[in-house]
Design goal:
This protein has four helices and no strands.
Length: 70
């Protein structure tokens, strides 16, 4: 019997416009709503990321985020 998919947590999320557009596009292409798409991405995080790029991209994102806050 398949495991029932339940969304058990709801939390306010602040996202950039670019991030939200990409989330909506991904969710639409996958036939999911935004919450389901986020659940999929985080449940499968290790298999959907490129570990070689993660640290570099995170560093760039944090630098841009600091600049936006200033």
């Amino acid at each position: 019997m398949p495991k029932r998919f339940r969304l058990t947590r709801r939390f306010p999320v602040a996202m950039t416009e670019d991030g939200y557009r990409k989330l909506k596009k991904f969710a639409s292409e996958a036939g999911l709503d935004e919450g389901e798409a986020l659940s999929f991405l985080f449940e499968n995080f290790e298999s959907v990321i490129n570990e070689d790029n993660l640290t570099h991209r995170l560093r760039l994102f944090n630098a841009a985020l600091d600049a936006r806050k200033s």
